[in-house]
């Protein structure tokens, strides 16, 4: 059976600063019920669970996003994770290798979802940018860090093979949302007390590009520089 | 309106020699009526027009491919080209810049179709390979060249932005089939007498990967080497 990951925009678009909203949340949500993304201007980190889009803002506040709001980049899919097992007392340095070892292959896209209790979680949220937008690399210095001990919540995100480094962040790109919806963001570090890990292997990637956006159409991408800048900004 | 390009496999898969057939022609043709590709073992060059799949074999012979035959790589879409004009007396060195100048943007995928009369056409067809397969680069030395003067026919293929160099051949990837179905292949050189050029801009790429194929799942890709090898083999 084909399992499809939908993506609007590319990480390469964000590198030179194409942060304008080029798709509405309403349109995006016709392609899945689970995912991650960011709003126009890189305004916060989106966590999409069971059809609800949450924004973690750089203030730290979490709110539900409305259908008419726009975004430059997101991934969504219909959740059909298969449970691969329970993780217990896994520290951050072992987390990504542990998840990677459960993938059927590192040569395709996969979804990751993990719910449970975490002894320590560190996240970051990019500060909303104003047009004219800076480069993605410049925003790496304009973000807010958050951390919390002993929290219950959900990790959701994706694994992207290195071959697609310009399309999305290679390796794991994970966001976090606490069960009480009071804490979240782009995941930097996570120590697992006990959590159930679900994986979904995608046979298909549907990549939607903002072909009606003048700035996207005219951008003169420096492809050789893009992957390097992605590594710095997403690292 | 969304315009979708469907692709089975990646050019990166072909680089280390993953030439096994991983999708049937019948499955492929549920996603379009126009396109290009190759059969299992890199057996010939496919030209897909109005729902019919033609194979140009390395013998030079052209035949219609059956639904149960398999392939490792192909692109298809539903033809809705818009005519951008007539080209007259365009020599090969000017052809690709001329087509590129008609694209709405070089930052997305586009389909190209050109029908008319050509004063000179040069093509190549890769010789069918047997398992265990060699690398793509090795096959560049195992191909047959064909040429013909004053021929009527169709050019069909795709433009891929440089960012997606591992996914497909960056720039133009064009195949040719004469109107009498007696001559064709992967296009190397073309002088236009008079031809109508059609372009179709894609907002969406649907990339389907052979996630059930053991060789694909296990392949340890050398991403840094892949794009270089693609440039050599497809140049």
Automatic annotation (TrEMBL), chains A, B:
EC number(s) from the headed UniProt entry: 4.1.1.5
Gene3D superfamilies for the chain: Hypothetical protein, similar to alpha- acetolactate decarboxylase, domain 2 (3.30.1330.80)
Keywords: Acetoin biosynthesis, Decarboxylase, Lyase
Pathway: Polyol metabolism; (R,R)-butane-2,3-diol biosynthesis; (R,R)-butane-2,3-diol from pyruvate: step 2/3
One GO MF term attached to the UniProt entry: acetolactate decarboxylase activity
Pfam families given in the database record: AAL_decarboxy
Lineage top rank: taxon: Bacteria
Transmembrane stretches, start-end: none
Top EC class of this enzyme: lyase
Family matches, as InterPro entries: Acetolactate_a_deCO2ase
Catalytic activity: (2S)-2-acetolactate + H(+) = (R)-acetoin + CO2
UniProt-listed PANTHER family: ALPHA-ACETOLACTATE DECARBOXYLASE (PTHR35524:SF1)
Family of the protein in this entry: Belongs to the alpha-acetolactate decarboxylase family.
Record-given protein name: Alpha-acetolactate decarboxylase
């Amino acid at each position: 059976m084909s399992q499809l990951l939908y993506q609007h925009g590319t990480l390469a678009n964000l590198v030179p600063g194409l942060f304008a909203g080029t798709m509405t949340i309403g349109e995006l949500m016709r392609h899945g019920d689970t995912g991650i993304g960011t709003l126009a201007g890189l305004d916060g980190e989106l966590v999409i669970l069971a059809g609800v889009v949450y924004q973690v803002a750089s203030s730290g506040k979490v709110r539900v996003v409305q259908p008419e709001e726009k975004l430059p980049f997101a991934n969504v899919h219909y959740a059909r994770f298969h449970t691969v097992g329970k993780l217990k007392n896994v520290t951050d340095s072992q987390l990504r290798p542990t998840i990677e070892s459960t993938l059927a292959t590192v040569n395709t896209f996969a979804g990751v979802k993990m719910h449970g209790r975490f002894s320590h979680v560190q996240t970051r949220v990019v500060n909303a940018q104003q047009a004219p937008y800076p480069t993605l690399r410049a925003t790496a210095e304009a973000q807010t860090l958050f951390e919390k001990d002993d929290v219950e919540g959900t990790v959701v995100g994706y694994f992207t093979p290195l071959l697609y480094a310009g399309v999305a962040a290679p390796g794991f790109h994970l966001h976090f949302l606490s069960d009480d919806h009071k804490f979240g963001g782009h995941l930097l570090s996570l120590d697992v007390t006990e959590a159930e890990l679900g994986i979904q292997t995608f046979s298909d990637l549907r990549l939607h590009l903002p072909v009606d956006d003048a700035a996207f159409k005219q951008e003169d991408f420096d492809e050789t520089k893009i992957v390097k800048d992605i590594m710095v900004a997403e690292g």
